[in-house]
Design a protein that fits this description.
By secondary structure, the protein is α/β, with parallel strands linked by helices. Helix content is about 30%, strand content about 25%. It binds zinc ion. The site of zinc ion has 4 residues, from loops.
Length: about 475
């Protein structure tokens, strides 16, 4: 099975150039001109960019939350991801205190098996550190292929771990070769502010944002960074939303602390005023951390440009407006947190980032694919266009203009958070390991074809460059 993609412009995290790509079976076999075409299917990519398939390092598919479950499962979620140019996701496997980690991982495999249309890996949530957990962790990395652990500093009495758990996870992960991921918000103070708001009768969606101010994200980010410095560990801060947090990450990186930051499309293009939409529509925009004051958007774009933040996760976590978000009509704390973002992640970054010259084309590839592959043990199998890499490829039309809408999206939810947004650029065809999953904007893949990715250990050589002191 040979394919040749001809006449396109290849863009990687490092280079932009004209060349053709020969795909044999699942891999990229050759890159160049006048490739041996005998027996090959020819794909004309004239006028298109050729990107490595996107890697979304932050998704929640088929995840229980607040008495309900995300609308998108592994089938609808990965098909929507493929439409958007993403060929790999890394999803969060939730754990419960007192339950073996292995059991939680089995549950997550059951969700994904026979449903995923693209390749996937798991991060593992750490809710407690005890002798049982410590004994299990080495096999999680070596046998299960899960080399990143997530700790929550927020969601008190649900997911939140204490500081000692975070610190011990950092120490243990460093020992074993894993990257620690953290949801950095001060859960204790949020809990207090939330109870106070409800006691005062403040139940509308906007109070979700007002009870989780940016200072509490900055404080928790700074605390996590300091604990990482003490542990000489490795930290990845998920969904960074604001200047307060970017400052703490920058300060730590300038000191040589091994800390990385992710942001999400919603924080780059939406703002806190969306939570004030009438008729409870504000609930569609309830994320944690919340959308921020608009001034933070340029801070985040600049941080991506300057390398203070390095990746874009979708934080896909979708709930219908009807029947799910509505659970919080009388009480904002009962609104399921999260939104549908897996499909539009790359297109928004291309349109708002590259087309508006906030980041370069090569930075776009880096933040939507290559850097995540490197940080999460998938490089160079995934995340680049190179001989020997998996033929995960996006053929992208950079000129088409369109509006994002729930009427045309492929996620299972009844609204789109970016409804009506005019953007430029769209994936035309997408290949996963040499096979079309999207061809001429139609899904031609198959649920269950996606493979679980056992990921390599964290590469500690990726440490930040302390020669480059930055300010926010
Ligand atoms: Zn998340």
């Amino acid at each position: 099975m040979k394919k040749i993609i001809k006449n396109g412009t290849i863009a990687t995290a490092a280079d932009t150039y004209q060349a053709d790509i020969l795909i044999e079976n699942e891999k990229i076999a050759m890159i160049g001109k006048d490739l041996p075409a005998e027996g090959a299917e020819i794909i004309d990519a004239k006028g298109a960019y050729i990107f490595p398939g996107g890697i979304d390092p932050h998704t929640h598919l088929d995840m229980p939350f607040g008495g309900t479950t995300t609308k998108d499962d592994y089938e609808t979620g990965t098909i929507a991801a493929a439409y958007g140019g993403t060929t790999t996701i890394i999803d969060f496997c939730l754990t419960e205190k007192g339950v073996p980690l292995k059991k939680a991982i089995e549950t997550w495999h059951e969700k994904a098996n026979e449903k995923a249309a693209i390749d996937y890996g798991f991060h593992l949530m750490i809710s407690e550190i005890n002798d049982d957990v410590l004994a299990e962790l080495p096999s999680i990395i070596d046998n299960e292929g899960i080399s990143s652990f997530k700790v929550f500093m927020a969601y008190k009495n649900v997911f939140q771990a204490d500081d000692a758990t975070l610190y011990r996870t950092l120490l243990q992960a460093k020992e074993l070769g894993a990257l620690v991921m953290v949801h950095a918000e001060n859960g204790d103070v949020i809990d207090y502010l939330t109870k106070q708001a409800l006691a005062e009768g403040n139940t509308d969606p906007i109070y979700h944002a007002l009870t989780r101010p940016p200072e509490l994200e900055g404080e928790a980010t700074g605390r996590a960074a300091k604990l990482t410095e003490m542990a000489n560990g490795h930290l990845y801060v998920v969904h960074v939303t604001c200047e307060d947090a970017v400052e703490k990450i920058t300060e730590a990186r300038n000191k040589g602390v091994d800390i990385w930051g992710e942001t999400c499309p919603q924080y780059l293009v939406l703002d806190q005023s969306y939570l004030e939409k009438p008729h409870f529509e504000g609930s569609k925009y309830v994320w944690s951390p919340p959308l921020r004051d608009k001034k933070n958007q340029e801070v985040l774009w600049n941080a991506l440009k300057m390398g203070q933040l390095q990746t874009i996760g979708s934080d896909q976590c979708s709930f219908d407006f009807k029947g799910q978000k509505e659970l919080g009509r009388e009480d904002f704390t009962k609104i399921p947190n999260g939104g549908p973002t897996i499909e539009d992640r790359m297109s928004i970054l291309f349109s708002e980032g590259v087309m508006k010259e906030r980041i370069t084309l090569n930075q776009f590839v880096d933040v939507t694919s290559t850097r995540a592959a490197k940080l999460f043990g998938l490089f160079p199998k995934k995340g680049t266009i190179a001989v020997g890499s998996d033929a995960d490829i996006v053929i992208f039309d950079p000129k088409v203009e369109r509006a994002i809408s729930a009427d045309t999206h492929h996620m299972a939810v009844d609204y789109n958070a970016f409804e009506g947004m005019e953007i430029t650029g769209e994936p035309v065809s997408v290949l996963s390991r040499g096979q079309f999953v999207i061809k001429d904007k139609q899904f031609v893949g198959e649920a269950g074809k996606g493979q679980f990715l056992k990921r390599a250990k964290y590469n500690a050589a990726l440490k930040p460059d302390t020669g480059k002191k930055l300010t926010v």
